[in-house]
Write a structure and sequence with these properties.
Layout lengths: L1 H4 L2 E7 L6 H20 L6 E8 L2 H13 L3 E8 L9 H5 L5 E5 L13 H6 L2 H15 L4 E4 L5 H22 L1 E5 L13 H8 L2 E5 L1 H8 L4 H14 L4 H4 L2 H23 L4 E3 L14 H8 L3 E3 L4 H13 L7 E10 L6 E5 L14 E4 L11 E4 L5 E10 L4 E10 L12 E6 L3 H10 L5 E5 L4 H11 L2 E5 L5 H18 L1
Parallel strand pairs: 1-2, 1-3, 3-4, 4-5, 6-7, 6-8, 8-9, 15-18
Antiparallel strand pairs: 10-11, 10-17, 11-16, 12-13, 14-15, 14-17, 15-16
Helix pairs in contact: 7-14, 7-16, 9-12, 10-12, 12-13, 15-17
This protein binds manganese (II) ion.
The site of manganese (II) ion has 5 residues, from loops.
């Protein structure tokens, strides 16, 4: 939770001098009370900091300059406790560089019918002051999230928490470095894209390294370091008797441990929190890293197979957004369909690299041959995933913009697949198999995704909006014809926007 403990959300309260000193004192006390409650909420991961009451344009403009330049500030929550004439906010809002949440709340949940008088009305008028602030934001085209409700309600605190997580995702997006080990899988289109444009749009930078750069780090790892890590492998995972007696298992496990340690040292040295590999470029490695990649993902690293840097970046950003949440998030690939019309499903997996944060039990550490790559048999963690709600999200370069595509899925009970030597998950696509998959294909969705049981569509909606990125949603309400029209509308929107 370090990322959230080291950052703040700044809370500002708008008012004006019209009401007199006594009323303003009360407004300040009330807004401090609101901040205290939000800061204590278990649903909001970052610290909420009360800033001040704003009653003049000079104060407001100065505040936005400070918020923009202070790296501690991830985002701003603005609450108009009373009426706050919004021409005062124009010059400040013009400079806004941080995400903004426009909170329509009140210190009181209910109207006190028996005692309400004009003093009460003047003090508690978000319903009317909030509209003045909303107007200027809309007139100026200010991107923001609008939330409405009593500040102590769990539902609004959850929504604020989701937005705070998106703020952290935005921060990570702007500083992330992705190491591309080897290039793209040859002739594959969807994993390619414009890395310069991606950096302009999202902030993360993607740079290539030769495998030799990593191998140099691997070669520096000592036998003692390998011994220690192999011991951890034996503690953390189930290992079948047949593997324990297998010499190849022991040898390749040591190779994998050395690769993991070298890869960690390399990524630390390059300050990269995401990376890609490709089975077509493994010079100097004995085997395609499987276990090593799975363990790095579990520690928060983003990963994309076959050179897929967009999914690697998206996974790292997702790992920041899901910190402290239950459920897990992994690299994923739509693999095989189950076309039984009474029980239609998709099998998600990859040839090795699924993150064990989504596992339903202690993973099994196994060694099996791998048909592609022409290298030695790789180690991998094999496990299943429990039923529950989930999502798949992918990012594609559409030529004139990046498209984020998300599909709500229902993860179902695992089936026994004794001969499948990889981690796997079975899900039903929303709203149904036909509509879900047709929509995904029409939208150009990738076979690689980020799969999450911890995050939901709202996290990505908030994050995409902050990044100014296109997001298309396939959920339980999606209807194919209007989905296709939405894609047409978006094509037109982005053509005109350019
Ligand atoms: Mn793949």
């Amino acid at each position: 939770m370090k990322i959230y403990n080291e950052s703040e959300i700044w809370f500002v309260t708008g008012s004006q001098h019209l009401y007199g000193t006594e009323a303003l004192k009360q407004v300040a006390l009330n807004s401090q009370k609101v901040v205290e409650s939000l800061d204590k909420s278990a649903h909001i991961p970052a610290k909420i900091v009360w800033k001040q009451l704003f009653t003049t344009p000079e104060e407001i403009t100065k505040f936005f300059q400070e918020a923009n330049s202070n790296p501690l500030c991830m985002g701003i929550v603005a609450w108009m406790h009373t009426f706050s004439p919004s021409k005062m906010w124009i010059n400040g809002l013009k400079t806004l560089e941080k995400p903004l949440l426009d909170l329509q709340t009140q210190c009181n949940q209910d109207i006190p019918y028996d005692s309400i008088d004009m003093d009460f009305m003047n003090l508690n008028q978000t319903a009317h002051g909030g509209r003045e602030f909303g107007f200027i934001c809309s007139r100026m085209g200010i991107k923001r999230k609008v939330l409405v409700g009593f500040y102590e309600d769990k539902s609004i605190q959850k929504e604020i928490g989701t937005w705070v997580r998106a703020c952290a995702g935005r921060n990570e997006s702007k500083q992330l470095k992705v190491a591309r080990l080897g290039d793209n899988m040859r002739e594959v289109a969807v994993t390619e894209g414009d890395k310069v444009e991606a950096q302009i749009a999202f902030g993360f930078s993607v740079n290539g390294y030769g495998l030799g750069d990593v191998v140099a780090f691997i070669n520096k790892i000592s036998d003692q370091e390998v011994d220690a890590l192999v011991k951890i492998y034996h503690q953390d995972y189930k290992i079948k008797e047949e593997f324990l007696k297998d010499k190849k298992f022991t040898t390749n496990l040591r190779n994998e441990a050395k690769t993991e340690l070298g890869l960690r040292a390399f990524l630390k040295d390059k300050n990269c929190m995401a990376f890609t590999t490709t089975f077509e470029d493994l010079h100097g490695l004995n085997q395609l890293p499987g276990l090593a990649v799975q363990r790095l993902m579990a520690d928060g690293y983003g990963f994309g197979a076959e050179g897929d840097w967009k999914t690697a970046a998206l996974l790292r950003i997702s790992k920041v957004m899901d910190l402290g949440l239950e459920g897990g998030t992994s690299f994923m690939e739509d693999y095989t369909y189950h076309f039984d019309t009474k029980d239609e499903k998709v099998l998600g997996s990859h040839m090795l690299e699924i993150c064990p944060t989504i596992a339903n039990a202690k993973p099994s550490l196994e060694i099996h041959p791998l048909g592609i790559g022409g290298k030695d048999d790789p180690l991998r963690l094999v496990f299943e995933v429990d039923k529950g709600e989930g999502i798949n999200i992918s990012m594609m370069d559409m030529g004139n913009r990046f498209r984020l595509l998300i599909n709500q899925v229902e993860v179902v009970k695992p089936e026994k697949m004794p001969k499948l030597p990889v981690a796997r998950v079975l899900w039903k696509t929303m709203p149904d198999m036909q509509t879900g998959i047709k929509s995904w294909i029409y939208a150009g969705g990738s076979h690689h995704t980020v799969f999450s049981k911890a995050l939901n569509i709202s996290h990505y909606q908030d994050w995409a909006e902050m990044m100014g990125a296109e997001l298309v949603v396939i959920d339980s309400k999606t209807e194919l014809q209007s989905f296709k029209e939405k894609l047409q509308f978006n094509d037109l929107y982005y053509a005109l926007k350019k």
